[in-house]
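Workshop exercise sheet. Pairs work together: one partner reads the sequence aloud, the other fills in the structure field after running the prediction. Swap roles for the next sheet.
Pair: D.N. / O.F.
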Amino acid sequence: MSFLIELIRAYFILTFVYAVVSLIRMYRIRGYASDKKYGKARIEKLASEGRMRQVPIYSAGEMAENKHKAVVRLSVFPVDTEERSKVVIVCPGGGYMHLCTKDEGYPVAAKLNEMGYTAFVLEYRTGFDCSSHAPMHDLAMTVKHITERADEYNVDMKDYVVMGFSAGGNLAGIFGSRRWGWERYGVERPGAVILGYPWTNINHWLQHPYWNIWLGLAGIWLSEQGNIFMFGFWGHFKKVNRESLCVQNFITDDYPPVYMFVGGNDILVPAGSHADVLETALKEHNVPYKYDKFFGLPHGVGLGVKTRAEGWIDDAMKFAGEHMDN
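Structure field:
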């Protein structure tokens, strides 16, 4: 009996140490991989030229009627040429609790500018400002906003791309579907969907138990928080609500082409419970996709600077360009 007790104690200690070390490693790597300075430098350049814009997507009346809509805004990153450019809408992650805009928004938009795309970073409703499918509504309103002002922004909205990271990947993935996305809101289908370490199967902890109890508890905590902010405390118990956030449930034969990348050491959104599940659904419906998995990479790396993932965005946009007109 004493041996069993010691074995259990060792399990709890070793798995706790592993979880802590993995989290420290994740934050250390994402600190340089996201390249916040790159995004900040682009903002400062645009601001110095009088071209940096952050705009609301809802009218004054809509914001007065619903104060939570007042937090929604677009950061506009125009290209440096006079030519009309293609559009990428960037949705940062944050578990529907907050937004990692400085890590997964501004630097990514700066890189897209460098590649010749006009980028729009969407700060959608999260946390206590969130409500049932509010982020999806915000994204749809963003598409309408840009479409109506295409001449003003000097952009071509045909085959616009939606790019999302983590929970933003959930948002982008859901928006690519007819049931809860573009068709529901009466906007054009995206030309492609690009997902970075996407949180696509939010109820994964019910189906894919962790060997590490601490990571399992973290997964439950993150999943439940996201569901609660989205649907409220009582609403998050409803199966229909929870299933509406699982992207693989809504893949159809005409789903947009998908590029996604993940890290092999993602302890928050493990690929086996999320991207791998989505890949199976994409295969079943013959949806064009490209899936890159980088060995040892943690969660939240953004551009992936100085990691194995560096350059993923070039591959993603190349893939999108090859498939969006087919």
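Discussion prompt: The radius of gyration is 20 Å. What would you look at next?
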